[in-house]
Design goal:
Layout lengths: L1 H57 L2 H11 L21
Length: 92
């Protein structure tokens, strides 16, 4: 009976150690994959910022006006609106 228990304990230890090494290897592989995903995310973030900057510069009023004038689409007359003054209560 003691001999069976001893072999069972030894077998359980071998199984647990093997499982631990297997899981450690799998988790290390996941870490590499996570690193690749992080690099991809950083690259896409940089590209996104560049595209946002380009969109902002191309969609500005002056940029659009310049392109319209170069293409000769129409004569430009621009008027800028001033903010309407807001009534302020008199100070005591």
């Amino acid at each position: 009976m003691k001999k069976k228990l001893f072999y069972l304990i030894v077998l359980a230890n071998i199984v647990f150690v093997t499982g631990q090494y297997t899981l450690t290897g799998l988790m290390a592989g996941d870490g590499e994959e996570f690193g690749l995903m992080q690099d991809s995310l950083n690259e896409l973030t940089v590209q996104n910022r560049l595209l946002e900057s380009r969109i902002n510069s191309l969609s500005s009023t002056l940029s659009i006006l310049d392109r319209v004038e170069r293409l000769g689409l129409f004569l430009t007359q621009i008027s800028y609106l001033q903010p309407v003054p807001v009534a302020i209560l008199p100070q005591p």
